[in-house]
Amino acid sequence: MIENLIYLSPLLTLLFGILGMLFFNKEQVNNSRCFRLARLVLLVSFFLVIVFYNKALLPMITQGSQFTLLFECLLYLCAFVVLYLSKKWFMSMNEPGNIFCCGIFTAVLCGCLLIESHNLLLTVVMCILFMLNNYVLLVNFRKNKEYVLSLKTYLSIMLMCWMVLAGALSVLYYYQIDFAYDMLRVDIDISQDNPLVYTAMAGVIVGFVFLLGLAPLHFGFTEALSETILPVITYFILVPVVACVGSFIQLNLYVLPPLHDKLIFFYESVALLSVGIGAIGACSARNIRKIFAYGAVNHLGLLMLVLYHFTMKTVDSSFVYLFVYLLAMGGICTALFGLKIKGEYLEMLNEFCGAAYKRPYVAAMLTVFIFSLLGVPPFLGFLGTFSVLSRLAVYNLYELVYVLIMMFVLAYAYIQVIRTFYFEESKAVFDRADKGIYTAMLFNAVLMLVIMVNPEYLVEDFVLMIETVFE
Amino acid sequence: MASLLFVFLVLPLLGCVFVLFSEKDGYNAFNVTFFTLCTCILAILKLFSESQIVGTDFVYSYQWLQHPNVVFTFGVDSLSLLLLLGVYMSAIIGLVGLSAPQRKSKSLLLLVLYFIWNMSGLLVVRDIISFYLFFAGMQLPLFMLIGSYTNIKKSSTLSLFFLFNFVGSLLLLVSILVVYRYNHGSVLLSQIGILDIPAVPQFIVLAGVCAAFVLRIPIWPLHNWISFISSGIKNPLIYILTNMLPLSGLYGFIRFGQVIVPTEINAFVPIIEVFGVLTMMFIALIGLSHKNFLQKLFSFSTISYLLFLLSKLLLDDKYQMNMAYSLFIFLIVNASLTVLDLFAENAREEAGCDYRGVLVYMPRLSKFFAFFVLMAAGLPMSSMFWNNFTLISALFRESFVTGLWVMASISLVGLALIYELYIMRDLQNKPLQEYAVTDISDRKLVFFGCITLVLFLSFFNPLWFVF
Amino acid sequence: MIAYTTFLLFFVGIFGSFKTGVKVDKILSFVTFTSLFLIFGNFCESWLTGDEQTFSFMWNSSPGGDIKIDIISNPYNYGIIFPFFMITLLNAADNQIFRYEERRSIFNSLAVLNLATLIMMITSNNFVQLLSMVFVVDILALFVIKDVNSYKRYFLLNMTADMILFMVLAVINSLVDSLDIRQILEYKQIGYHTDFVAVFGLTAVFMKLGFFAFHIGVTSLNQIRLHRLQHILFLSAPVTAVVLLLKFHALWSMSVYYTVYIDVMCIATMALSFYGCLVLDNLKSKIIYWQLMFWALFVELLKFNGFVWSNLFTSLLLDMYLIVCGFYWMYHYFNRRPLVSQMMCLTSQNPFRQDCAFVLILLPIVLMANTLAIMYNNTNRYYIWSFAILFVLSVALLINQVIFTSTNRKKLKMNLIPVHWLYLAEQTGIAVILWYYFHSNEISVLGVSLAFIILCCINPLQKMSILYSNKWVQTLDFFGILYRTLIKSLRLSGKILWLLVDRLLMEKVILGLIKLLGKSNIRLFRQVHQSRLGGGGVVLIVLILIIWLSYRQGVHING
Nearest CA to B209 among B221, B224, B192? Predict the structure, then answer.
């Protein structure tokens, strides 16, 4: 019992953190102290996760491995980055950040359980909790009329997903199928021709599609992100993605192989739709956050397009792409944190006119990250793009061509951002960027450079950890 | 010597770092850039002489990834070294042409060095993936340079420029990925021809490669991006670099053309030939109609690139060195004329004098200008003359009609350049006015004197500088 | 050995081309002239000793064949080079005597370098060497002309000719697969594009000679100094054209158009030049047209002689040079006043000068008539005489106007410049030498002289001088207009193409369509996303559809 409690310590730490944050909220403790403590809690939890990397958090329903450790590490790192950057925003806007920290802790907690989950019930519950947490974060910040409308959209899609997930569980329960992954796989194998079982499992996947913001459930995701605050966007673009991808891979490898043939078209359609909608949506947007939100839809769609084959090589490639995506998107968010006028963070594209002249380093780094996302060499993005596209070339050339066309469309959208930054003139006075922003960007850039020069760290060492999922 | 090749490859990047940390609002960055380029030229000359002595190519490899097996392979031969020398000399000429405020711009020089690094990387790579790396990599610095330091603020033109190049890169990427599909890992350029690829994918590879390179070389109807861009650039260095971009496409044809099975590539040759010839005539006529020297120079450079392209596609590899000699001279002549013309244009605007007869007020510049114009027009002042003669006569052997069109275009553009030179030297019987037009300085006089000497001596021996 | 002469000439040319002060320049020009004279002596000595050596240097190699520099010494080459050497020497001597040039040494150097280039061209056996030298001669001509306004047409036309020649030689090289000129006879066996090569090759030659339709390049040189004009007319592009004819006639004669083309062009040029000589008031223009007439005659004579050079051609060239020198004297005497209508009548002047002038013109005329008579005997072609008569008639008209016609022009105040005795001595000396070497046992001098004097006195065409005052005739530039129209139409077509293709088709239509497509896609996208309820419905339907289709697909696969 005590041993189990010790193994559960990372989650307990996070739980204490959540409670602490709620207490701070009541006591109105200042932001600086609050974020300092939040980071400390996160670091302690992270440390504990690493120490007990091969131990299940909740025996029987979770399982730890090198694969889960890798995703958990990524999750913690993303959460840490979000906290680090968000502090600047909350300090600058003088708004309490306790609820936000609470949300991050909850997300990490849910994410860890989701990644380690070996029980469908736990997976679904964590998905639902994750969605709820996301909604709470969205609701808590910014409440103008337009935003309320976006939230309603998000909420309605979320409720629909809940219903779908609940329905899926009900169907499986009705057929007396065990929720533990190993048993579930056997049961699904037996009843694989049952359309209702198929539908139930497709319903579970719908939950992941929503969490990842993939098309056609991207509505709430992109609309809400364009209206919300920068820390929440950063969170949305980084944290749920890691947790969901990790869990999604395990679910598909441990549970769904019997249904793989039937799900292929579903995955493929979702991925292709996301790639297309993401690219066109980015072109149609004038709000920089929306552009990157749609960009994220595109990139995750591409990731899905390769991942859905669920072979060792496609999983490896997808991981490389995910890693590169996280670095680049993290970098872009960092750059956006560094650009504000009179204390106000900017949203519309035209507000960034001439930013490169006032904040050259921030703009330069943003450009590097954007080109990295586009896969333009010699940036790290090339490694990710090459990694997934080379897999795609092996599987389907038509999809490859489609992806490249959409990449071209997305490039147009990103070019508009760079053009606005560099080639438009403006007399706006940008505020001096925090040193922390520069530090974060420098750290990101150095990491990218090191990996680009010697990608063995990423492609060989990390991938070895990834491959444990196939054992 | 492989280590020298490595050093040569790293030098521009090292220059970038130094420029990045150089002092603001000073000439430090400029000096670093100039020094870097000069050092690179010395390295090229050393590589040249070593390659002449040893008689073999140097190859340097770097294992980037093990799974998939991606090995970056670099190597040099006389062709690539000549082109490298041309590129670096053009860059130095462009650098000399920068005005004082432009010389203080760190970001400009940083991007220039980065572009040059990409270009030199492209010219020394031996494997398909690293070829793509540099081919695609050079569009970013150029896009930033054009957007930030030229008068082209029209978004559609800039976007068009980037997207055209991006499409080219994507097409090359498709080809590389298809090759990758059948041969996991790096493939040396020399091995592409012997890969066991089925007919349809091979067609896709070739189509992708050809389209990617054609997009870089301004062949009608894909020439718009470069003509739109060229008309708006007033910075000599950026103009030179922009007009160097087609070299990447041409070099792609040279390198890929060596290895692609002739029967496969033959399917595309007539199409490219027809469009190439039509574009040449079209550009020559347009060049004739423009009343601006830079536009005519653009026509000249486009037609020259197309001549080299047709030579590559239609002729044997034995003509490769003739092409390289001509290209080397062409790059330098083009760069020199750009710098001189833009200098004259700026001086003219400052002094407020007319375009017609402007060279009368700048006797020093006028001499060099005339020399380079006559060289560009095809007069025997450099090795370009007899090498072009060899290429054109071989073109005539392959296709008489193509040869005729090529010759007509070259003659038209040559005459257009000479006519413009006449306009710039002719005061139309007006008396000399009291304009304070600045002529080129003593330093530039010496510099262009040296360039002239380099070119003139090449007439007698195209590799006179190799000892 | 010719190679030795050539290298010495290059050395002297480069040595004299340095820009120095006036005093040094005088010394330098004298040194260059003396050197030229000595080299000429050496050249003649080598010729007389029957030197036959070959200098051959492997310059470069190319896939089209080896590029060699050949300077071949043989009596034939010596014979061709001799008149041009002689003319260069005379030109340099006149430059010493008349002192028009601010930098005489530079002019001498240009002449010397030009001569060296011509020698290399004449002795060449390689396309690249030949072509290079043709171009170099044109570049040197630019320096000689110096005047920007004058060289525009001349240089553009010559450049066009060079480009055409470049093309023709490229075609020949492509078929013969050798850069050796001696291999062109193999071309006969191959037999492709013979008409093309002949027509275009001859066109280039005619452009260089300034023949009919291409004469505007030469006629536009009437503003430059007369001794520079002499250089251009006798030592520049026309000479390269003659050399090209000598080297390629065997190849070009394979075409059926060859004879016709040459005859038509020579006759047309002769007619045009005769008209020009009669109606134009400007002495330099007249000289240019005489020269054109001469070259037309020269080409015809070469053709009749099978394009084999002989001493008679040397004589003819030198005779013509002496005739032009006679006019030069006249021009100089009238203080470089170019219009004939403003030249004072010489009868009202010193009778000695009148005699001198007359002798200076008469001597070479007689020599030329003598040469033509010998040629007539050789070729038995009557229209050589018709050419000669037209030529002499037009010269006689001028002599008649300037020397024999007494008009009221004496009222014009003119600062007359007496001619240097050296010049007179030089002209007479050369004429005598020529007579001694080429004409000592030929037709009656007295008869020809008498005929010429009669023609000069009673010139039947003297009424044509009334056209001197006709502004329209004097300024008519029909071919200039024609060329301008041609260039304008080319430029216009370029402009139209640019507008139609670049602006209209590419920018407005194709790129516009792409933009429109993109915009409409985005509009559609926005509309779907704006209508939240409708969008939600669509999403739901799409989702269900995908799931259903996926199931169907899976069932189908499992089959």
Answer: B192
